């Protein structure tokens, strides 16, 4: 369990930890791969969330997924980009937490993922928690903990 003092320094507030949905680059499930490729390359993202028409989280799309879809053993078929919908090839297995998430769960998930999507109980996309935000908090702890708290090593009692 994460101590309250450490948690307080790690995240300035619960609201700053989650980047709101309206500030996150996303693609629609019915968008074509050419649109997703343009978004990924223009904004230099590795992966972005895929939403349906009701703004419910449905998956993730990445550059490797797009490239694997349009490649065969001999060539890359860029002409296919306009023919294939994102929903046909997106990754449907993605990390997410509900809005009332536990910080410890998020930390474990961010070890293997650049971001975690946040959804409500009905699956509506609420935003993302990025590894970057957690690293900012870790930096805050490294620089501020001993300025705010007296740190004393515990004495080890031999048994």
**What is the chains' assembly state?**
single chain
- Point out poorly predicted stretches: none
Order of helices and strands: HHEEHEEHHEHEEH
The helix content, as a percent range, equals: 25-40%
What is the CA-CA span between the terminal residues? 25 Å
Number of helices: 7
Instruction: Please compute the radius of gyration using only Cα atoms.
Output: 20 Å
Walk me through this protein's architecture:
The chain is an alpha/beta fold. The chain has a single domain (4-148), classed as CBS-domain. Helix content is 37%, strand content 18%. It is built from 7 helices and 7 strands, in the order ααββαββααβαββα.
Summarize the structure.
This protein is of the alpha/beta class.
Keywords:
three-stranded mixed sheet; CBS-domain; CBS_dom_sf; single chain; 7 strands; four-stranded mixed sheet; 159 residues; alpha/beta; Diverse_CBS-Domain; 37% helix
